[in-house]
């Protein structure tokens, strides 16, 4: 077993600072459990020293080969922040697992089990990642590690819940999985007060298998804004200013504790303390070496200047990501709308993107209305390889995967009409008027290598959408039941009343002239069966 | 001569409506404003479905967008029925017409105009058929009666149907219900014209009208299951006659027995048995034959559908939908808000109640109006329009147009004016309240619910009045011969006091 800590800190273009912690535990020579042994209880005994036992038990019990769980808050701004160190930055909770299984039902049962177990472990509402949110996209989530060759097919289960919020109660159990908790090592810096104050924050758990063993990687990713807290408008940061803590001592069981600081490209700055090593534009520190308190930081002599101001004047900075994307749900009404995606290719080369939507059934796609425009010219040929799994109302989300081709330096517009569902009143969340958070769409660049095989680039998550669904009146169930039943009963009663009656002529005058007997004024139409009709009585009293 | 004029009326109305649809299309998408226009008149559909026909013009089962989506998926090899449960889908038979929306999606403007015209024609033609069938039903009903004073009906009937805003809205919204209406009216028209061993009058050269009628009803039931409740009156109509006998009520067998040829046949066949028993068994046998033929057609259509899509799951998405109401999309009916607001544990119970409620009318109405099965059919059409799970405006349009066939009951209606007012009230409020709720956000679901409730009241009032008038007419027409009997009853009542 080997435990490693690593922290990477980078100053961003807009003055923010991103820091990415990763705590990696490698369990050498371990292999995930073969699902065929689930029938027997004699699993290998679990004795770990560094590997988190509570997590290991879950992995063994449900025979998980690979698993990724992320809890994020905020919108990752690819255009100014670039790619994140950990690619899974979709807002809310996202869980996906690769499992092998003989039959699908067994996989779904284990998927449900692992959801609930993780929900208990992390105090997060992962139990709500149920069948209504579970999909199995074909291409977008390849296994990051290896899959053991048991002769069984491996299947992916993916679920995301955009309105799940990450908070202290998720961080505490997260820290408990670390061998040193937050007592020593880099985890000391994980101060909840500062983490959840960050502009963007997310925690993640990644379990994967490589031939050398099972690897568990816990990571925390944060984007701080030093400009916000700096009185002078300076970009300066240090451990102390960001986390309100310093690394007092290294974690004794960690085989390595390293920090890297990405050095700015230009300008005058000072990185302190003096880096032990500078390589590829990064300053590296090994915190294992000495036992003094570490407070790594960077200082600038001048105030931060927003480079956006320069962009209009001189040549803008090269784009950090090959393409940028915005996704919107248009339309003013609550019964239908239009999903619109605008993609801009920042490169000269043609770009192929794998586009994935995992949409809850409350928003129904109309694929026949897909329109693709490239620089306002219709180009329906730019979308290909559409695969679509239909949603099941009240049960299953839709999965839509396709490949979009972006010509170099162009803007591609994708639009599709959607229908918004009308829900039963019990299906609405307690704050129904707020709307529903829709999971982010995921774009993955397809890189064609020289030998013709396709490889997937880094995933890009769009921000989540909020859809405004029509709501019934929640205070009305009894009224509606009463009104509708009354109208139906009234019509039913009237129809059957008329149907079961017999029509006869009741003469009002005692001796009508025979010839005029059918004139209308002299007749009353009454019922022979019911003998106590008021009209009949009054007419009779008139007679007598 | 009248026949020719009726055709002229229909042609004129259709031309007017095609021109109207074209004009609306040009108004909504002027050819100059869009260099690239992909719609085949979809702008009009969108305008209707977001405007005057919001929620009411189409139900999820008849929505044009759902039809196009199913076709699109089917053409690309995706099963439009998915796993089947809870899905809302169109009948697989529509998928056989998968060439419809693809004609000249983008091309030169002349092709576009042609495809637009084709689209408009495709959704106006069924209305022309419907009007024509209505006239034929009327002719079959009127031909036997001695008085031919109301031949002007043949002009009025197409007008009522073709210029009814309900029908026009459904047609402009390209709701498949206009096809369903045409198919149902075709079934009824052929049933009226069919020959049977009990029919009293010689017919035109229409020897297989019965099969046509049953085939069309099977098709209609296949497209949406609710029409199944129209099967019993249609069987009566096939065995009996469409002529107006409201004034002379009596058992169904009585009318059949009146026919001399039937009597003769019976006497020749079995001279010893009592005639009544023979007659009954003969009618029963004929009815079972008809039922069997219907089942054969229905099964055949189901098999064809299964062949088209390759599995049986389409049944739960098309037929199951109208029974189990998976989609709570508002419509002019009574179901949607009731089941939106229903407590989950009572949902199955009330689904059964609502379905049984529809079925419950069939037997009493067929029994009471056995002397005039067309009238029973008419009332059941009204009940369907009011009480079925996914009604649309065109169902109401059909019910309203049907009133034109029964002019003899007008004098006996108790409250035609209030019914009309309530109907207009609801018709005007429905789009308004739908907009206030869904577009403007200034109203809520209760507004639209209230307007549909008023609409149901109007439908209910019309049904009750139709039943009343249909029974009341018998008393009036009894004539002086039976008045004595009635007077005797009257004395009984008086003596009871």
UniProtKB/TrEMBL annotation, chain A:
Transmembrane regions: 478-499
Gene Ontology cellular component annotations, sorted alphabetically: GPI-anchor transamidase complex
Region (Disordered): 512-544
UniProt biased composition (Polar residues): 531-544
The keyword Cell division belongs to this UniProt entry's keyword annotation: no
GO biological process: attachment of GPI anchor to protein
Keywords carried by this UniProt record: Membrane, Transmembrane, Transmembrane helix
Stored InterPro entries: PIG-T
PANTHER family: GPI TRANSAMIDASE COMPONENT PIG-T, GPI TRANSAMIDASE COMPONENT PIG-T-RELATED
Listed name of the protein: GPI transamidase component PIG-T
Organism: Lentinula guzmanii
UniProtKB/TrEMBL annotation, chain B:
Statement: the UniProt record of this protein carries the keyword Transmembrane: yes
Major subcellular site: endoplasmic reticulum
PANTHER family in the cross-refs: GPI TRANSAMIDASE COMPONENT PIG-U, PHOSPHATIDYLINOSITOL GLYCAN ANCHOR BIOSYNTHESIS CLASS U PROTEIN
Pathway in which the depicted protein is active: Glycolipid biosynthesis; glycosylphosphatidylinositol-anchor biosynthesis
Keyword Acetylation in record: no
UniProt name for this protein: PIG-U-domain-containing protein
Family of the protein in this entry: Belongs to the PIGU family.
Keywords: Endoplasmic reticulum, GPI-anchor biosynthesis, Membrane, Transmembrane, Transmembrane helix
